[in-house]
Amino acid sequence: MEAVVEATDLEKTYGETVALAGASLAVDRGEVFALIGPNGAGKTTLVRALTGTTEPDGGRARLLGEPPTAVDRGRLGVLPQEFSPPGRLSARELLSYYAGLYDDPRDPDDVLADVGLADAGDTWYEDLSGGQQRRVCVGSALVNDPDVCFLDEPTTGIDPAGRRTVWRLIEDLADRGTTVVLTTHDMAEAERLADRVGLLADGSLVAQGSPEALVREHGGASRLTVETAADPEAFDDLEYPVERPERGRDRSSTGAVVVRDIEPAEIGAVVDFLEAEGIEYTELSWAEPDLEDVYLALADRTERERTARLGDAGGDGDGDELARAGETA
């Protein structure tokens, strides 16, 4: 069976900036595929190439079995990262306008209810909160009941309750057979929604798979974070590996060390060690690896490899970073 969304070795450059460097993926009917990656990795360029709004320099994109530019636009829903509709139209008027572009659209009031704005239909767009505005934008991508939906950071600026409303909506779409490709910086969002996740770095998909498979392969070991001012050397006699966290998620304002590769049943042994050694601590927290660990590990690895390449080429990387400033996602 042919994939609904397919990219084969897509390439795209803007001047000297490489936005896509051989990106490949395939997404099946009813699948939710999440693209994650650092700013400047090429996510938005890849979405544009897949929807036919950017012509790639090399490779091939296919959408519903056709070149993207040949597909009936009524079968697609596209939410760009930047979307600024007229502010002096109400939420209902905006959705009615977009509904009018299609032959058989959904009722705008039903769409408002789906995105959690049934009571805000008469409010001007400019008077809605930022999160409500984003939900109206999500609704505009769904008003034609698309077969394939591309959502570029759909929940940016939406509060937690509204975010969950959008998540449930995306899950319902997939359950009804809609294929969804979304980009996100929210690892919890990707982990909850996506059947598969692709990490894009330097214009290439460096890893793809289900969230569970990616965590198993790249997430590392479980960890026990000990909030303490003590140095890792104080834990030399502990039987588990201990390190000072290098990444922000395990750090605290008072200091911390991380005990790696430890199961919950073994936490008592660490507590006994702390008490025996007289090491003061304020908190213990245990966690399994998750998609954020995968993201950080792969992004760190890619950055080190890129830095090494630049070093071998005699550059310091500043020009590359400045060139990437024009690519927003």
Automatic annotation (TrEMBL):
Positions of region (Disordered): 305-329
PROSITE patterns linked: ABC_TRANSPORTER_1 (PS00211), ABC_TRANSPORTER_2 (PS50893)
ABC transporter domain: residues covered: 5-227
Recorded family membership: Belongs to the ABC transporter superfamily.
Protein name in UniProt: ABC-2 type transport system ATP-binding protein
InterPro entries in the cross-refs: AAA+_ATPase, ABC_transporter-like_ATP-bd, ABC_transporter-like_CS, ABC_transporter_ATP-binding, P-loop_NTPase
Native organism: Natrinema salifodinae
UniProt keyword Nucleotide-binding, yes or no: yes
Magnesium as UniProt keyword: no
GO MF annotation terms: ATP binding; ATP hydrolysis activity
Keywords on record: ATP-binding, Nucleotide-binding, Transport
